[in-house]
């Protein structure tokens, strides 16, 4: 607990000291600090031999970023400190770690841009390449190298990159290079009323076959007569270079938008049983909006698209963290913020799936009172196996289905309510989820929000495995806000089916200018934490959580 207090005091001191230094010469300095620390407390209700609290009850993830801008020139660095890493981030940093997470220098003018350092970028929809940072998921797969781009008169944009990707706290032994081209046919045709773009990308990952040989020898070290892996690779036609390409089209006109992408991928490591296979993916999206009405439909199919940074990393090519990946494969489903609706989110099947979602929204506004309106929203998503299953009578297996609708009503200046219903069905469970959310504003500064949730399970409770088939759940939240500084909340999620366990949490936050501090205590259920449709598994824990964010 002493370390938790010292960390808070030190962080606040650092924030106060640097916030006054915003101008350096003719340039501008900006930065941010983010810290999340947990003091883990004993809890016999959730800890067991397979899910034990860490030997050191304290964990802390910290990120400090500083950027400098002077005209067309910019530079920046980011330092990460795991003191040690929080539970669930074990693949990122095993124990204590302090390191330079990213750095860059960049020059840009009206048409030309060059960056040397750690690159964050995305080609198309990210199906073949996306380097990004998500601290909630513990992902930073930036590319250390060089990137350049050039815009030809607004008609053609070309960019290229080369470097080695970050793998957790180190850099991998693989190399990635690529190029992306975008041509605006609408600009060429002087058609200002429409957007019409043709785009394409190419990405190459190089990883020496000697790494594969060493990896397989370690796996089969106890197996007599294991053949040389280089011979095995030659049998499958595997080469050090993995090539991926993408073709895309984007069209927009008068509220209508159409996007499409097709991706091809060479032979790559898939799994140990049938290790080397080619991959492909296709994505189609159609949307339309008119005044307060909008509809969007997305459809995607993919096979063997789990492209790793390092196929032969010590922890294996596929892991729960998700940081060992070059591309971006989000779940095309509704992303919930309510506890019970997000209890068992969908995970993309990288080996083969087909499906998509349709999203509709409509808003009705009162012409006489701006504080009165209705918001209607409906969403449907479903995914199936790409191949037909023999044990299902030559039918595709259902991976996921979610049918949901919500209605938000602003009654007057003080009252607002929301009702949500969701039916979720996957291979492990079925659930009917009901949510009621009411907010009352006492005045311009004080407000009270109350959530009530119920999950009616269609599972067979006799098959409870600790995460699924737990039966029914209830949950509630009360949040009181005193703008602009204070917010207090208490919440509980209780399983009334099998485990009879409360997952409670309570705390407060204080915000001053650009600094926010939050202190909470509670018990957290094992499950998936999701951001943007990508998820990370987090084990159960109880503890005191201190979060600090600040920018200048």
Strand content: over 45%
The coarse overall form would be: globular
Average pLDDT figure: 87
Low-confidence stretches: 11-20, 222-226, 462-467
Largest sheet: 24 strands, antiparallel, barrel
Number of β-strand runs: 32
Helix content: under 10%
- Span of the ends, CA to CA: 28 Å
Please tally the helical runs, counting DSSP H or I stretches of 4 or more residues: 4
Protein topology:
Elements: H1 2-19, E1 23-24, E2 27-40, E3 58-70, E4 73-82, E5 97-108, E6 112-119, E7 121-122, E8 130-131, E9 133-134, E10 139-140, E11 143-152, E12 156-167, E13 170-171, E14 175-184, H2 185-188, E15 194-206, H3 209-219, H4 229-236, E16 241-253, E17 256-269, E18 276-290, E19 293-303, E20 353-365, E21 373-389, E22 395-410, E23 415-426, E24 430-441, E25 446-457, E26 473-482, E27 486-495, E28 502-512, E29 515-524, E30 527-531, E31 534-538, E32 541-551
Antiparallel strand pairs: 1-2, 2-3, 2-32, 3-4, 4-5, 5-6, 6-11, 7-8, 9-10, 11-12, 12-13, 12-14, 14-15, 15-16, 16-17, 17-18, 18-19, 19-20, 20-21, 21-22, 22-23, 23-24, 24-25, 25-26, 26-27, 27-28, 28-29, 29-32, 30-31
Task: Report on the architecture of this protein.
- This protein has 552 residues and is mainly beta.
- It is built from 4 helices and 32 strands.
- The strands form 4 sheets. It has a 24-stranded antiparallel barrel. The protein has a two-stranded antiparallel ribbon with strand order 7-8.
- A hairpin with a 3-residue loop joins strand 26 and strand 27.
């Amino acid at each position: 607990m002493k370390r938790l207090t010292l960390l808070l005091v030190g962080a606040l001191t650092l924030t106060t000291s640097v916030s006054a230094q915003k101008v350096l010469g003719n340039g501008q300095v900006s930065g941010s600090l983010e810290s999340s620390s947990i003091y883990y407390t004993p809890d016999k209700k959730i800890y067991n031999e397979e899910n034990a609290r860490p030997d050191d009850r304290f964990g802390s993830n910290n990120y400090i970023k500083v950027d400098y801008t002077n005209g067309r020139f910019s530079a920046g660095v980011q330092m990460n400190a795991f003191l040690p890493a929080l539970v669930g981030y074990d693949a990122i940093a095993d124990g204590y770690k302090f390191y330079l997470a990213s750095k860059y220098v960049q020059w840009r003018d009206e048409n030309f841009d060059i960056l040397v350092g750690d690159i964050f970028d995305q080609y198309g929809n990210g199906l073949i390449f996306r380097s990004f940072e998500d601290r909630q998921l513990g992902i930073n797969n930036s590319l250390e190298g060089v990137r350049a781009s050039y815009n030809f008169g607004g008609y053609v944009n070309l960019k290229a990159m080369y470097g080695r990707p970050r793998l957790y706290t180190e850099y991998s032994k693989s190399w990635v290079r690529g190029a992306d081209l975008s041509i605006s046919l609408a600009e060429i045709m002087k058609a200002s009323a429409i957007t019409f773009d043709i785009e394409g990308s190419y990405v190459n990952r190089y990883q020496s076959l000697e790494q594969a040989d060493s990896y397989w020898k370690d796996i089969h070290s106890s197996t007599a007569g294991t053949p040389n892996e280089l011979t095995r690779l030659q049998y499958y036609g595997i080469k050090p270079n993995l090539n991926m390409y993408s073709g895309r089209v984007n069209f927009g006109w008068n509220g209508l938008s159409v996007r499409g992408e097709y991706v091809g991928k060479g032979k790559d490591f898939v799994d140990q049983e049938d290790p080397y296979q080619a991959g492909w993916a296709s994505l189609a999206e159609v949307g339309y909006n008119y005044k307060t009405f909008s509809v969007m439909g997305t459809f995607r199919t993919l096979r063997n698209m789990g492209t790793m940074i390092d196929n032969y990393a010590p922890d294996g090519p596929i892991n729960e963290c998700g940081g060992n990946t070059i591309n971006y494969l989000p779940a095309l489903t509704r992303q919930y913020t309510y506890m019970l609706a997000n209890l068992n989110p969908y995970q993309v099947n990288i080996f083969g799936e087909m499906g998509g979602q349709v999203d509709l929204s409509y808003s009705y506004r009162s012409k006489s009172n701006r504080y009165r309106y209705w918001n209607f929203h409906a969403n449907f998503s479903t995914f199936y196996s790409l191949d037909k299953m023999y044990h299902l009578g030559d039918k595709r297996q259902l991976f996921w289905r979610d049918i949901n609708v919500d209605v938000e009503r602003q009654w007057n200046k003080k009252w607002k309510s929301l009702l949500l219903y969701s039916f979720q069905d996957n291979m492990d469970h079925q659930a009917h989820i009901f949510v009621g959310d009411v907010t009352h504003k006492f005045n311009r500064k004080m407000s009270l929000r109350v959530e009530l949730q119920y999950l009616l399970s269609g599972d067979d409770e006799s098959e409870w495995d600790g995460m699924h088939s737990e039966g029914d759940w209830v949950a509630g939240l009360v949040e009181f806000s005193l703008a602009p500084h204070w917010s207090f909340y208490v919440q509980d999620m209780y399983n009334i089916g099998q485990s009879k366990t409360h997952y409670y949490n309570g705390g407060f936050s204080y915000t001053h200018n650009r600094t926010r501090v939050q202190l909470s205590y509670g018990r957290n259920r094992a499950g998936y934490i999701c951001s943007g449709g990508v998820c990370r598994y987090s084990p159960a824990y109880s503890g005191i959580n201190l979060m600090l964010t600040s920018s200048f």
